[in-house]
Specification:
The complex is a heterodimer of chains A (about 200) and B (about 475). Helices cover about 35% and strands about 30% of the residues of chain A. Chain A has seven helices and ten strands. Chain A has helices spanning about 5-10, 25-35, 60-75, 120-125, 135-145, 150, 160-180, and strands spanning about 15-20, 35-40, 55-60, 85-90, 95-105, 110-115, 125-130, 185-190, 195-200, 200-205. In chain A, the strands form two sheets. In chain A, strands 5, 6, 7, 8, 9 and 10 form a six-stranded antiparallel beta sheet that branches. In chain A, strands 1-4-2-3 form a four-stranded antiparallel beta sheet, with helices on one face. In chain A, a hairpin with a 3-residue loop joins strand 5 and strand 6 (about 110-115). In chain B, the strands form five sheets. Chain B has a seven-stranded mixed beta sheet, with helices on both faces. In chain B, strands 17, 18, 19, 20, 21 and 22 form a six-stranded parallel beta sheet that branches. The two termini of chain B are about 45 Å apart. Chain B contains 17 helices and 22 strands. The chains are: A alpha+beta (about 200), B alpha/beta (about 475). The interface of A and B includes residues 107, 127 and 185 of A.
Chain lengths: ~200, ~475
């Protein structure tokens, strides 16, 4: 399930969002949040939303917002949905990361950091620690990623804000210990020079 | 015995203290001793006698008067003198009774070789053993194990004949192995290679004493400088993490985890779930506790034996070689492992130029040419020993050349004995080379068959030195920090 309030509770920044259930709500929420926005279907039956066309991005106007809402409703006709999430498009030029968690039978909560996005399982550029982690552990995790030079600002990018990323990892470690889920994903977590913002999450108990 | 743990005094559990009786007993009873040469109970008694155990050995066998020239007893309770330790090798059904008698006799340490417990589903039987051992505070190793070897005190309960499984010389490495079979062949290999061992334990089902208890014991054991662990699973991962975290601040721990199947990750519903198998959890715990993970059995002792050298103060490698190609390969490996090729100081270069033949290149890798003899090696080693821009000396010796003889080994050993800088040797070759490698190993100079395997071990060595320096004072010219 998606529960952004859980992230806020542990101090992890979330891209501004609103859950809507009607076309006119979608329009007003989009305007309120400020364009451009993205819309995502919220459904317990759609685990990997992108694969099923459950995400519309780059919505720039009220007209487009109405259309996007209609498209999603059409695509998920007959599927149990809880509504549509309207969310601020953030992180243009940011690096997509993933912070995850899993309960291990031997070691308890594990925390994962990796290069995020939809190809996480293809690249498998991830690293793990046992919770709780220290700032030093978090810094080590960042430097262990194969793509770590991207975070350092490869090809003229500005390096991501490492302190913010370390904080996000420590907060996630606290969340994992506090909530003790069986599985947990923040994916993507958009990281740039200013900080990191969670765009999507999933928690399973 | 007490020790300080996180500021407060904590008592070491009796079963851990009593491991002393297992590793250095002055008297031992062999329950299940036999007159039949092919029986385990015969081999064990024979190994104690032939191995030169200095204490008393009491064979226990209700149907024998004498075994291998020693008076046999019907039960440990028949022995008048004090008995420290017992080895039990009898059928599972009789074990509980024998163990109870050991408790009554005041025996403190027991090695239980017999199988037939939790490994075949007999959990009840194993629980009963634990109950008896704990009631008397006995340190019980096993069941279903191969026992222990302590080269220094000549304790040897391993039931494999000495002519089939070589016993290692006394050295700084202690090795604990969940598997008896894997443990045994590694001990055999190590002893052939000339690697020294302090203690070997095959701990089997770990009904009472488990891997964490053994680690706790070895942490304060004076003879143990390096700990090697072969793990299949652990009872309590969190405890392993905590215990290892404490130990690695003082002693290096090299670990291999067998059984890394991805099972459990299959049913995952999230990205993380599908990426996190049990091997990721172990790997994470090894990293966080400062343990050094080996991927293969070869690496296990490759990584461990390097710690017989003084810890390095940095990651700058100085290479000496009598074969140019090996120097090039070593330089490539330096890059692969993220280490640094040292840049020799001007004094070093000037001195080398003055004392080496003009066709030798006074640069790193230092190629002292195929006609190098021991004297030329001595000049090169002395120069690199003095140079503060060299943290580790990689000594490549190709024994195939006409000019090289055994005296180069003495020069390497003399330099290593100064304990100023680590000296690591690479010797590639056949029998003549192997013979010299064994001598180097027996003097604590780790040897490798290739530059790449040497460098893989050196990178672990340096990483551990950094870890160690966070908690301990090191005699280094500058605080240790790897140069980027």
């Amino acid at each position: 399930m998606i529960d952004f309030s859980l992230l806020s509770k542990y101090g992890i920044a979330v891209a501004p969002y609103k859950l809507v259930r009607k076309p006119h709500e979608a329009i007003s929420a989009s305007a309120e949040i400020g364009f451009p926005v993205a819309m995502k279907i919220v459904s317990p039956d759609a685990l990997h939303k992108t694969d099923k066309g459950g995400v519309v991005v780059g919505i720039g106007s009220s007209h487009e917002a109405e259309k996007a809402y209609g498209t999603l409703m059409e695509r998920f006709k007959g599927v149990k949905t809880e509504g549509v999430l309207v969310q601020k498009m953030v992180g243009k030029g940011a690096v997509e990361l993933i912070i995850g968690g899993k309960k291990d039978p031997q070691f308890g909560q594990l925390i994962m950091l990796g290069m995020g996005g939809i190809f996480v399982e293809v690249y498998k550029d991830v690293t793990f620690r046992v919770c709780p982690i220290t700032a030093e552990d978090a810094a080590e995790m960042i430097s262990e990623l194969r793509s770590h030079s991207i975070l350092e600002g490869a090809r003229g990018r500005k390096p991501v804000n490492k302190a913010a990323l370390i904080n996000a990892l420590i907060s996630a470690s606290k969340l994992l210990q506090g909530e003790n889920p069986s599985e947990f994903d923040i994916n993507p977590l958009m990281a740039d020079e200013k900080g990191c913002v969670a765009v999507d999450m999933r928690i399973l108990y | 015995m007490e020790k300080r743990l996180g500021g407060k005094l904590e008592k070491i559990p009796q079963k851990i203290r009593n491991l002393d009786a297992v590793f250095k007993p002055s008297s031992i009873a062999v329950i299940g001793a036999s007159r039949e040469p092919n029986k385990i109970g015969h081999v064990i008694v024979k190994n104690f006698i032939d191995g030169g155990f200095g204490g008393k050995v009491y064979p226990i066998n209700p149907n024998a008067e004498e075994i291998l020239g020693l008076k046999a007893y019907k039960s440990v309770l028949e022995i008048k003198e004090k008995v420290d330790s017992a080895v039990i090798a009898i059928p599972a059904a009789a074990v509980a009774g024998a163990l109870e008698e050991c408790g009554k006799k005041g025996i403190k340490g027991v090695v239980l070789i017999s199988g037939g417990f939790s490994e075949v589903g007999n959990h009840k039987g194993e629980k009963k053993l634990a109950e008896i051992a704990n009631r008397y505070g006995m340190a019980l190793i096993g069941p279903n194990c191969m026992g222990v070897i302590t080269p220094a005190s000549r304790v040897d309960s391993v039931f494999l004949p000495i002519y089939k499984l070589g016993r290692p010389r006394v050295g700084p490495i202690s090795f604990i192995s969940q598997s008896g079979a894997v443990g045994g062949c590694i001990v055999d290999l190590a002893s052939r290679a000339g690697i020294g061992m302090n203690k070997f334990v095959s701990y089997g089902n770990a009904a009472v004493v488990d891997e964490c208890d053994l680690l706790e014991y070895l942490a304060t054991d004076k003879g143990t400088q390096i700990i090697v662990v072969y793990l299949e699973g652990v009872k309590d991962g969190r405890r392993l993490l905590e215990v290892a975290r404490r130990i690695t601040r003082k002693k290096p721990v090299v670990v291999i985890k067998a059984g890394k199947s991805a099972a459990g990750a299959e049913a995952a519903k999230s990205h993380t779930g599908s990426l996190a198998g049990s091997s990721e959890a172990y790997r994470a715990a090894f990293k966080q506790s400062g343990m050094i993970e080996a991927q293969t059995l070869e690496q296990l002792f490759d990584f461990a034996k390097i710690f017989d050298q003084v810890l390095p103060c940095g990651n700058r490698i100085g290479i000496i070689t009598n074969g140019g190609g090996m120097g090039v390969l070593a330089t490539d490996s330096i890059e692969d492992e993220g280490l640094q090729l040292s840049k020799f100081s001007e004094e070093t270069v000037a001195q080398l130029k003055a004392s080496l033949p003009p066709y030798a290149n006074a640069r790193n890798p230092l190629d002292i040419i195929g006609d190098a003899d021991s004297h030329r090696y001595e000049i090169a080693i002395n120069a690199l020993m003095k140079d503060e821009s060299v943290d580790v000396i990689l000594l490549i010796i190709l024994f195939q050349t006409a000019a090289i003889d055994s005296s180069v080994v003495n020069i390497a050993i003399r330099a290593s004995d100064l304990q100023k800088k680590p000296i690591i040797a690479v010797c590639t070759g056949g029998e003549y080379t192997e013979m010299h490698k064994r001598i180097l190993e027996s003097y604590g100079i780790p040897t490798y068959a290739s530059p790449s395997s040497a460098m893989r071990s050196i990178s672990r060595f340096i990483k551990y030195a950094e870890h160690y320096s966070k908690y301990n004072e090191m005699k280094c010219p500058v605080p240790i920090k790897t140069q980027k």
